Amino acid sequence: MREMTARLRPVYVVCAEVPPDVVGGLGRYAERMMAAMRHLGTSVEVFGATARHGAPRTERIGDVTLHRVRTLGGGRAGGTSRTPAVVLHVARMIGILVFNVRVTVRILRAGARSSGSVVAVHDWMGCVAGILCRVLARTPVVFHVHTRELNAGSSQRRSVVAAGIAALETVQARLAHLIVVPSVGMRDDLVACGWPPDRLRVIPHGFEDPELLRLAALTGDERDRLRMAVRRRYLPGGEGRLVVFAGRLSPHKGVRTLVRAASPIVGKRDDVRIVLIGAQAPRTDENAEVARLIDDTGVGRHVVAGYRFLGSAEVFAHFLAADVCAFPSTYEPFGLVAIEAMALARPVVVGPGYSPEVVGDGAVRCGHDSPEELADALLRCLDDRRFASRLGERGAAHVRERYMWARTAELTLAAYAELAR
């Protein structure tokens, strides 16, 4: 590995979402990958967007240097703003464009034209920088595609913004020397869209988080105490059945299907509480939409939504406390939260958006976006404890055999090294 990457000069990474502005999977990926790459002997320069004043502009993490670039509309801003949504969206698009241009200038000045340099861009938010570096400096570019959620639905419903983003991604895909995706399912979807199959490479993500590993190592008594402390927040005396969802409240995450599934579930088990951990994506009204659906379906006594993001430690503690974890996404190229819940040996139910090979036989995968099918899958886990226990054991084994951030980092740097001139 080190011999292969020795010819790499600095790797320049453009990833708009970086810590501490983590609002989704891309930020979690950046956080874990920077930690995994810190001692692999390759200099990695990461450029991320931020709207914060307090975070340090530059942070050294072993071999990785994180550059936070102040960006209009970056970070978590916009969740409770009274500014009209259209203004926020325009500001964000302008901010991303300026961010890309500024980062391109910095990369070119830093020596991206030199032999052995590679530029890696993540999702559409880094495409402009990738295209500019490829055209202006002839630098090899790797395009990491983590999600295409804005274009996951019918093309007839696609907004002008989504269509523009799709066109930008297509141009970047044509210019990129290599396109990296996290799952076979996503690779197949992109091939079906006309992307070049010979340049698509599947490199799965990892699962390890320091807090997750700590919780997984707890003794039986320690685990039981933590589980009961969380369960008592939602269930009288901690007794009953607890279903936990974690993620953004965006439509493709399946939250609305889960809320609609609550009625048939509580019709059979009145002791069930469904906890929604997460909040709306920035510059949306998804919190209010979910709240209205809970009211309209009359399941407010059984569905608890906090409309806020929790820290990793709290999220993992909720997974441990759950009788079953539900992630009913209709579009999910990898699905890190499900992998993390499986790693903790929790029974997991996922939606049709999950690529089958990602969860294997370690989770129940619904074939359709159906509240009835989801309710049946959850009730089976809630009613059959032996089945649920075996499912959790298979899930933990599946994850620990297949996913590791160190392996992801090594495979990623090896892929970059193949392009080094």
Through-space gap between termini = 17 Å
Q: Which stretches are poorly predicted, pLDDT < 50 over at least 5 residues?
A: none
How many structural domains does the protein architecture include?
Answer: 2
Order of helices and strands, N to C? HEHEEEHEHEHEHEHHEHEHEHEHEHEHHH
Shape: globular
User: Which structural category fits the helices and strands?
Assistant: alpha/beta
Largest sheet: 8 strands, mixed
Residue share in β-strands? 15-25%
Number of strands: 14
CATH topology grouping of the largest domain: Rossmann fold
Supply the CATH superfamily name of the largest domain.
Glycogen Phosphorylase B
CATH architecture of the largest domain: 3-Layer(aba) Sandwich
Which CATH class of the largest domain applies here? Answer: Alpha Beta
Fraction in helix = 40-55%
For the biggest β-sheet, the strand order reads 3-4-2-1-5-6-7-8
Report Rg.
Answer: 22 Å
Mean pLDDT: 91
The total of helices stands at 16
